Amino acid sequence: MEKFIAVIGSGSWGKNLVRIFFELGVLKSVCDVNKTNFDELKNKYPAHYTDSIEEIEKDEQIKAVAIATPSETHFEIAKKFLLLGKDVFVEKPLALKIEDAIELVKISEEKNLILMVDHVLHYHPAVVKLKNLINRGEIGEIKYIYSNRLNFGRFRKEENTLWSFAPHDVSLILSITGEMPEKISSFGESYLFDGNLTGLNSKIPCDVTLTHLEFKNKIRAHIFVSWLHPFKEQKLVIIGTKKMAVFDDTEKENKLTLYPHKVEWLGDFPVAKKADAEFINIPNDEPLKNACIHFIECVKKRKRPLTDGYEALRVLKVLDFASKSLKNNGLPFKMNEKFYAYETAIIDEPCEIG
After folding, report:
1. What pTM did the predictor assign?
2. Which residues does 99 contact at the CB level (< 8 Å), separation at least 6?
3. What is the separation, in whole angstroms, between the first and last Cα of the chain?
4. Distance between CA atoms of residues 179 and 215, nearest Å
5. Is the pLDDT of residue 234 over 90?
6. Relative to the CA of 330, which of 120, 212, 281, 288 has its CA 20 to 30 Å away?
7. CATH architecture label of 122-286+316-341
8. C-alpha to C-alpha distance for 317 and 203, rounded to whole angstroms
9. Quick one: pLDDT at residue 134?
10. Whether residue 261 has pLDDT greater than 60
């Protein structure tokens, strides 16, 4: 198989990309300014290792790059390689500024290049199954969604916990509801950092945030994220009119469970009737590997990724509104009806309604 992908950044997440692209037979080069990362990788995954990004730029055999560097560098590196005519796979977030993300999308569209963001949960077999169940009507009409993404660490100064933890959950909720929220409010507090942060979310260094989304079809959702939590929790709960669904990514087995509970009415009084849980069998696929396979297919067949630049822009817009709400002590912000033109990536300003 042709080796045509370079991985830029081989740290805690980048090394997974190195492993997977090597296993898929497409890894040509690995670039990292920290060459000590190479020590554990070189023998396991033979490829060309370099600390010079210029080498990657000049290598005409490299058709695509996967970027797993610190988030504040995503825009600069992605733009560099898009302008060189190479397809780009980038870890979330696509950028820390909306205008930078728009620029990347415009470049990829103008040059007919693949731009894919690793909102990896879309490629999780449990999420794929969950979406199929929703589309088949198994859950019924969705009423409420909540997502918890909690852990102790990893602390970052370049982005707060909202921007570090919540993009995956925002991405999933937008996909499940099929629309953008009408109103967004977010509350948070900083307990570790009092200094400024870089990027769009500067001066709001929150360690804990709770974000509330209200949709036109009366669906409500909230996202609770924290890196000051005693144990790890990654759980998505969907309340439907027929069943309730729980996706718990910390479970080794039974990651997806349905609860066909019912509400019966005795006159005008509701009574809860619990039913046995239904454990859904799912393949034991690695989500990141599925995402990498999808990227390779998109590069070879020139097809638009599931999590393309526009999908990333929708997520960033929600994070932007949530950041504005955080900065204004939880003041709700309402999206203008014509706030977003997806094809041209034109974005209007939000309207506060608190």
Report:
1. 0.89
2. none
3. 57
4. 8
5. yes
6. 120
7. 2-Layer Sandwich (3.30)
8. 18
9. 97
10. yes
